[in-house]
Amino acid sequence: MQTDAIDAGAAPAETSRIVIERPPPGLARGKYPWPAWGIGVLGVGILVVGLVYFVVLARRRRAR
Description:
mainly alpha
């Protein structure tokens, strides 16, 4: 009987370990990583500018 045979159910040896590097999760994956709060501030700013635009547009139409 062979004692040095490899068991199919055994864990792989430490020397054959493969390390896969992954980027951090979330919004910091792009070329220019931003924190989540920065994306939130940008989104709120765009939303406020859009709302102000529509309010000004509605006031101009009402004034006619």
